[in-house]
Amino acid sequence: MSRVGKMPITIPAGVDVSIKEDQISVKGTGGTLNLARNPLVKVVSNDGKLNFEPANESREANAMSGTIRQLVNNMVVGVTKGFEKKLNLVGVGYKAAASNNKLNLQVGYSHPVNIDMPQGITVATATPTEIVIKGADRQRVGQIAAEIRAVRPPEPYKGKGIRYSDEKIVIKETKKK
């Protein structure tokens, strides 16, 4: 068995996990998340803990047990605490404004860039150069953050652009004459 797949998930109070034939649902204060069930993994619930076991001895089933376990763990953490990504805007005149699930970016183009947030994702701007994306689904939060970053990725000569708050940009040396 995979090392990740062996570890049980403790279900905190206030979280309801339902295991059906075709999907696993996790319901909590942060919302409801669903995951399609894989036939290679057996899910066993007992005493407030979830255990994941490979359905057979194949290598694929072993790997999938760890993957499904981590996805369900992310769902449990998402509906209890939630996930967030922080982005910073670096550049003269670069600013962001959030209102009514829309993000307005002014990042050096001749027009502002408007991005609509999907259901379950909230966006806030603490300062005009900081963007905070929050939600229960870790994958969707990361995907939206990547899409916002792709509007103006950091360039390697001056470092201007949209970057993750913990991202380090290696600045290149300019061409010598």
Task: Give the tally of β-strands.
Answer: 13
Beta-strand share of residues: 35-45%
Which structural category fits the helices and strands?
alpha+beta
- Determine the CATH superfamily of the largest domain: Ribosomal protein L6
Mean pLDDT: 92
CATH architecture of the largest domain: Alpha-Beta Complex
Q: How many helical stretches?
A: 3
Distance, first to last CA? 59 Å
Tell me about the biggest sheet?
Answer: 4 strands, antiparallel
Structure description:
This protein has about 180 residues and is of the alpha+beta class. The chain folds into two domains: about 80 residues, Ribosomal protein L6 (Outer Surface Protein A, domain 3, Alpha-Beta Complex); about 80 residues, Ribosomal protein L6 (Outer Surface Protein A, domain 3, Alpha-Beta Complex). It has three helices and 13 strands; from the N terminus they run H-E-E-E-E-E-E-H-E-E-E-E-E-E-H-E. The strands form four sheets. The chain has a four-stranded antiparallel β-sheet, covered by helices on one side. A hairpin with a 5-residue loop joins strand 11 and strand 12. It is elongated. It starts with a helix and ends in a 13-residue tail after the last strand.
